[in-house]
Amino acid sequence: MTVFSRFDMTLWHATATPAPQTGPLEGPIKADICIVGAGYSGLTTALELAKAGVSVVMLEREEAGFGGSGRNAGHCTPTFTHYTLPELRRMLGEPWAERLIERQTRANDRVSSMIRDYQIDCEWVQNGYVMGAPHKGAIAAIRQKVESYNAVGARTRFLERDEVAAITGSRRFHGGWLHEEAGHLNPLGYARGLARAVIQEGAKIFTRSAALSCERHAGGGWTVGTTGGSVTADKVIFTTGAYTVGGWPKLERTFKIQRVFVAATQILSDDTRRTVLPENTTIHDGRGDIYVYKYNAEGRIVASMFPMGRRGRDMAYTRQVMSERLKWLHPEIREEIRWDYFWFGELDMQYRTVPRFYDLAPGVVALTGLSGRGVPTGSMLGSILSEWALGKPQNELALKLEPLKAAPFYMAFGPALTLRYHRLRDNLATRLSGAPLPPHA
Prior knowledge:
The chain is an alpha/beta fold. It is built from 13 helices and 19 strands.
C-alpha cells in the first residue's frame, strides 16, 4: 500500500497521457480575457472563447488539472446529488432553476463531444451509472428520480432487483436507478486533453504562474500579476475552486473545504471482473455515507468515500473498511484486495451545493462551490462563463451573478454532521426494513 499526501501522485498521474508542454509566464502580455485556474471550468471556458476568436491567456499556479480536476474519482454523472429537481426549483426559482437543470442534465453530451472532437485519450466509457436501493424504503425515492429526470429529457430507468444484480454483480440492492448517459474516465487525462485542445485553438496557458494580484488599470481593463510577468485583459475570470490561493481578496472565504479520499486496488483477476461490475458501470451503493466505485482501464477498482472518525486518518483501518465494504457488496470476490493507490482531494462546499457565480468588479467574475460535482458540472460551466465573457446579458445566463459572500460559519462543520446524520438515518431505515447493514456502517 502506498499512501500519498494531498499533493502527491495519484493513480491518474501514473496512468494519464502526458501534459502538454507549458511553462511560466515571463514578462507582460495582453489578451481579451484572462482566466485564472486551469481546471475543467477554466479550460472549457478558454476552449469556447478561443473557438469564438477571442484571445485568451490562462494562468495556473501548478499544472493543468492539478486540483480537483485531476484528483477526483473519475465519475461523470450529469445529476444533482444533494437535491431532487423539485427541491432545486423551489430553492433557485425560475428561470434560473430550469436553465441550470438543462445545462447539468445535458453535460455529458458536452463531455463526450469534446472528447470525440479533440480525440482526448482519457479512458472514456459511457456505460451508465447505477444508484442502488440498499433497502426497500429507498425504492420510492428512486422511482421519483426516474420520473423527474426523464421529464427533462434524461435517459434513466428503474431497475428491479434481478436487473440491478445483473448489471452490478451485487445481490445487496433491492432495486436501482440506471442513468444510461453517465460515464467514467481518467480525470487527469481528460484535463490534460482539454489543455491540449485549448492550445490547439490558439489560447495560451502559462503554468507555475500563480495570480498574485488583479488591479484595475487606467485604460479600463485589468492587470493580473504573477511572479514573472503580468496579463493585461478586458475581463478576468477566476475558476480556482477549492484550490484558491490569493488572486482576489476574500475569494477563498466563499466556501469551506470538505476532504474526500479515493483509492484504487491492484489490477483484479479476470474471474473477479466477470462477476463484479460486469458491464463496467459506475456504482453508488445508495447510502448517504456513500461508497462509489468503478473500474479504470487497467481493471483496478477505484472507490471513494468521505473521511469520518478513524476513516481517512488511520490508514490500516481505512483500507480495512474499504475492503470489507467491497467484499460485502460482492462476496464472490475470492482474491485478497490490495489498495495500491490512495489519495485525497478537496471540495469547495457551498451550503446550497450548486455553483456560485460572483460579480467581483466590473469585468471580473469568479465561480466557486462545485461541491463535488466536478467532471460534468465543471465541463458545462465553461459554456456559461464564456457566454458572460462574450457579453450575454446577466438576466439570460444560466447562473445568477451575485455579490461576493463568505460561506456561513456552520459550513466548517456542517458537511461532516450531515454525513453522520445520513448514516444514522440510513442505518435506522435499513434495520426497520429487515435488511443487513454493511460492515462499519
